[in-house]
Specification:
This protein is an alpha/beta fold. It has helices at 13-24, 37-40, 55-68, 85-90, 109-119, 137-149; strands at 43-49, 73-78, 98-103, 124-130, 153-159, 173-181, 192-202, 210-216. The chain is built from six helices and eight strands. It has an eight-stranded mixed β-sheet with strand order 3-2-4-5-1-6-7-8, sandwiched between helices.
């Protein structure tokens, strides 16, 4: 796909927008956990971690939640980075309903995200920024405004340590992703991991809260 091209999912953006308008008029019962799409709606957020972190696991936890309530989801990354589809499908995500946009350079990701958010058709847009990309203040302003206007969740995935600064002042929620193996478990549970989201910044509620879930380790990398 070229840098300026929009994705071509099975349904048109007009169809996605119409479906989303109907679904937003319905009442969805959310689980009490704070790590839900509802927590991220209308916000620019960031999940960061190292190579062996739980960043992708926690991100796709939100993708799954979005799909459960009928919200279209888009994933934007470069041609040199990708997630492992079998792992994602094994976790319950409908790959056929996930719009994936791949661009040649990281600097194009914000522009693609802006076009998708401006359509109003997506409830969750994820930006796979890696370890070096930074959003300019102008890009943050536009993206945060669009996320708020369309009640969409915009999530940046970055590779960095917890002590490094977030993408910028307009990031409404920043969390560190941590994965821990269950080393003392028996053979049955040896392939299970504890994944934590340690929230360092949250403009809607006090920071410092932690979300924790246990997951079965995949056949590939997660």
């Amino acid at each position: 796909m070229s840098a300026g091209a929009l994705p071509r999912p099975r349904a048109s953006l007009r169809d996605l927008l119409a479906t989303r308008r109907v679904l937003r008029g319905l009442v969805h019962r959310e689980a009490p956990s704070a790590w839900r799409l509802a927590t991220f709606r209308g916000r620019l957020a960031e999940i960061s971690g190292g190579r062996a972190s739980a960043t992708l696991t926690l991100a796709f936890r939100l993708v799954l939640d979005a799909q459960k309530v009928g919200e279209p989801v888009a994933w934007i990354g470069t041609t040199s980075s990708a997630f492992y589809p079998p792992d994602v499908a094994d976790g319950g995500v409908d790959l056929a309903a996930l719009v994936v946009v791949r661009v040649p350079e990281v600097c194009v990701i914000p522009r693609a995200a802006e076009r998708l958010l401006r359509s109003g058709a997506f409830g969750l847009v994820l930006l796979d920024l890696g370890g070096r990309a930074r959003l300019s203040l102008a890009a943050q302003t536009r993206l945060a405004s669009l996320a708020l206007a369309h009640d969409a969740a915009l999530l940046c995935l970055t590779e960095k340590d917890a002590d490094r600064q977030s993408q910028g002042s307009l990031v409404s929620l920043r969390a560190e992703a941590v994965r821990r193996a269950n080393e003392n478990a028996g053979d049955y549970e040896r392939n299970r991991f504890s994944c934590e989201a340690r929230v360092q910044k949250d403009k809607r509620r006090a920071p410092g809260w932690t979300h924790r879930e246990n997951f079965r380790g995949p056949d590939g990398l997660r």
